């Protein structure tokens, strides 16, 4: 059963990746739809970050984790290089936990 699901997902992924270049010049997506898809992807990513920041492993992650995610978000918004965003977020969380913020 699992192997069948993996193979089906692999074939679906291959089909989507193959169809992209084939349909590039045949289908035009309106500008408004492109904008909405971009906003939807951003909203989905933010929702994923929020869920993992507030309730990792099904329980509250603590204020230090939320502060770290906030610092990382601000750094990313300010277009800081990604490695530095990760270091700032992790460093903020670690420092707050070191000082006893749960």
From TrEMBL:
<keyword id="KW-1133">Transmembrane helix</keyword>
<keyword id="KW-0812">Transmembrane</keyword>
<feature type="transmembrane region" description="Helical">
    <location>
        <begin position="60"/>
        <end position="77"/>
    </location>
</feature>
<dbReference type="InterPro" id="IPR008407">
    <property type="entry name" value="Brnchd-chn_aa_trnsp_AzlD"/>
</dbReference>
<feature type="transmembrane region" description="Helical">
    <location>
        <begin position="35"/>
        <end position="55"/>
    </location>
</feature>
<feature type="transmembrane region" description="Helical">
    <location>
        <begin position="83"/>
        <end position="100"/>
    </location>
</feature>
<dbReference type="Pfam" id="PF05437">
    <property type="entry name" value="AzlD"/>
</dbReference>
<keyword id="KW-0472">Membrane</keyword>
<protein>
    <submittedName>
        <fullName>Branched-subunit amino acid transport protein AzlD</fullName>
    </submittedName>
</protein>
């Amino acid at each position: 059963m699992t192997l069948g699901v993996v193979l089906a997902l692999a074939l679906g992924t291959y089909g989507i990746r193959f169809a992209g270049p084939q349909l590039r010049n045949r289908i035009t997506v309106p500008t408004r739809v492109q904008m909405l898809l971009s906003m939807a992807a951003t909203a989905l990513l933010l929702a994923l970050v929020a869920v993992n920041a507030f309730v990792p492993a099904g329980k509250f992650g603590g204020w230090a984790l939320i502060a770290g995610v906030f610092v990382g978000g601000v750094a990313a918004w300010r277009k800081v290089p990604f490695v530095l965003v990760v270091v700032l977020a992790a460093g903020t969380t670690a420092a707050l936990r070191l000082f006893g913020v749960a």
